[in-house]
């Protein structure tokens, strides 16, 4: 049963979602220091025909031995600015007491679908809406 599920997942990612992925990000800073960070990139196994929103070009070279997912995860901070124009939520809270001031900022990029196309030394990232 587990083997069949694994094979089904691999085959569906090969045929349907080989270059379409989900992206999400969350970070929390307290007094300008990063206290929490969550980064997510995962393959999208269900085909999606959405409107193309924007395209970003990032200097990333994918080796023949790495999967696109591994290459994207290794270069996460290079592709992060491409998603700032998508649905982003920023909240800021400040608390002051007699002895101290606490400032907390949370940045959330909601899950976003995107397509990656590796060309020579660049990756073209197209955000889908």
In terms of topology, how is this protein built?
Blueprint: H1 2-15, E1 20-30, E2 33-43, E3 52-58, H2 68-74, H3 76-79, E4 88-96, E5 101-119, E6 122-128
Antiparallel strand pairs: 1-2, 1-5, 3-6, 4-5, 5-6
Molecular structure report:
The model is unreliable at 8-18 (pLDDT under 50). Helices cover 19% and strands 50% of the residues. With 129 residues, it is an alpha+beta fold. It has helices at 2-15, 68-74, 76-79, and strands at residues 20-30, 33-43, 52-58, 88-96, 101-119, 122-128. The protein is elongated and about 60 Å long. A hairpin with a 2-residue loop joins β5 and β6 (122-128). Strands 1, 2, 3, 4, 5 and 6 form a 6-stranded antiparallel β-sheet that branches. It contains 3 helices and 6 strands.
Instruction: Give the overall silhouette.
Output: elongated
Mean pLDDT: 83
Strand tally: 6
Amino-to-carboxy terminus distance: 35 Å
Order of helices and strands: HEEEHHEEE
Helix content percent band: 10-25%
Find the structural class using helix and strand composition: alpha+beta
């Amino acid at each position: 049963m587990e083997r069949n599920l694994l094979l089904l997942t691999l085959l569906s990612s090969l045929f349907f979602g080989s270059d379409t992925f989900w992206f999400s990000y969350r970070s929390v800073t307290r007094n300008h220091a990063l206290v929490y960070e969550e980064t997510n990139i995962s393959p999208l196994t269900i085909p999606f025909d959405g409107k193309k929103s924007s395209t970003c070009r990032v200097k990333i070279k994918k080796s023949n031995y790495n999967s696109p997912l591994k290459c994207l995860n290794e270069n996460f901070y290079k592709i992060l600015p491409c998603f700032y124009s998508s649905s982003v939520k920023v909240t800021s809270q400040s608390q002051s007491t007699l002895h101290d001031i606490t400032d907390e900022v949370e940045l959330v990029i909601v899950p976003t679908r995107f397509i990656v196309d590796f060309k020579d030394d660049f990756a073209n990232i197209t955000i889908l809406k």
